[in-house]
Design goal:
This protein is mainly alpha-helical. The protein has 3 domains: about 50 residues; about 80 residues; about 150 residues, Intergrase catalytic core (hpI Integrase, Chain A, Orthogonal Bundle). The protein is about 45% helix and about 10% strand. The strands form 3 sheets. The protein has a 3-stranded antiparallel β-sheet with strand order 1-2-3, covered by helices on one side. The N and C termini lie far apart (about 95 Å). The mean pLDDT is about 85.
């Protein structure tokens, strides 16, 4: 394998230099004297050098793709785990062997309620999406025909104000209670809150920087409301590490177990940590907050996603459309003129 790849100017033209397995110098001209263009070509060359051979199997291609993207996606381990259960079905095939019918067969098999471990449509869409991205990364002219199952309907479970109060009261551990409060008041993802440090919390200016976007998961800078401020001030007084939500003097690896216990004590079903983010967005929509503001709060890259999921919770949702269907006053009156039909009485037995 070539090692020590770097750019070097040779006789006015940028080249890629490296040493081969025997330690001998090698050079590949990029054919340009422009440094910016050479840098872009160099990066493309590095990407291509990681790609497997043209006759590689789907498994080899996806493996190389995940390795190449591990520093550019939010949860590479989760993606690898998600792909693992689909690998046994698609892995040994070549890209040319991936067809729409094959994707339909896989989806039908894995979504079967009688299967050993049935999968949801959302999980299958994620698996096939990973395979599709990997095959296109390997060769944009890939002959594979990938068909995704229909997306699942938007999640509808959210907490009422009373349910949220019960959940907070049911939290026995301080770090779980703080997580619940911050999740409801910032609409942040669980991963962002677990990684949140005090250096990103500005109590004086009333702002929380949830950090840079990770992959396609956007993160925002959100204001601190009074509920969050009180919780943060108390947590800051007892802090023993750089992390806002801490346990045993360090960051929290997961809140799932403690959160599930609190939900059980609060008698709440179908509630996961992500439901808190959904709840925060629903509450903002119900209060008439513009979709553009909710989108920024959630870190969405486009308001289209926000509107698709949360517009229906707005008090003004479809009101103008309903107003357009009103009848003229004379017609309204005419509809109800005359006597109402008499109800037929059942004969006595």
């Amino acid at each position: 394998m070539p090692t020590g790849k770097r750019l070097k100017l040779y006789r006015g033209v940028w080249c890629i230099y490296w040493r081969d397995d025997r330690g001998r110098s090698r050079r590949a001209s990029l054919g340009t004297a422009d440094q910016a263009a050479a840098q872009a070509a160099f990066e493309r060359w590095q990407d291509d050098s990681l790609k497997p051979a043209e006759n590689a199997t789907v498994s080899e291609i996806v493996s190389a793709y995940l390795k190449d993207r591990k520093d550019r996606i939010a949860h590479p381990e989760a993606m690898a785990l998600s792909w693992r259960s689909a690998e046994s079905f698609f892995g040994k095939r070549k890209p040319s062997g991936i067809t729409r019918q094959l994707c339909r067969d896989y989806a039908r098999k894995r979504m079967d309620a009688h299967a050993a471990r049935p999968l949801s449509a959302g999980t299958i869409r994620k698996q096939l999406g990973i395979m599709s991205a990997a095959l296109k990364w390997h060769d944009k002219r890939t002959p594979a025909e990938i068909e995704l199952p229909s997306p699942p309907p938007p999640k509808s479970r959210f907490l009422t104000r009373k349910e949220a109060g019960r959940l907070v009261s049911a939290c026995r551990d301080h770090h779980i209670r703080l997580f619940v409060i911050l999740a409801l008041t910032t609409a942040a993802r669980a991963s962002a809150l677990r990684q949140l440090k005090w250096s990103s919390v500005d109590l004086d200016r009333g702002r929380i920087n949830l950090g840079p976007s990770v992959g396609n998961k956007g993160r925002a800078v959100v204001p601190i409301n009074e509920t969050a401020r009180q919780a943060l001030v108390l947590a800051r007084e007892g802090a023993t590490s750089d992390y806002v939500i801490e346990y045993a003097g360090g960051p929290v690896a997961s809140v799932k177990k403690g959160f599930a216990g609190a939900c059980q004590r609060a008698e709440l079903e179908g509630v996961t940590p992500h439901v808190l983010r959904h709840t925060a967005a629903v509450w903002m929509a119900e209060a008439g907050t513009p979709m553009s503001e909710i989108s920024q709060y959630l870190g969405h890259t486009s308001t289209a996603v926000t509107e698709r999921v949360y517009a229906r919770y707005s008090p003004d949702y479809l009101k103008s459309a309903a107003a357009a269907l009103e009848l003229e006053p004379p017609q309204k009156v005419q509809m109800f003129k005359g006597e109402l039909p008499k109800r037929r009485q059942k004969p006595l037995r």
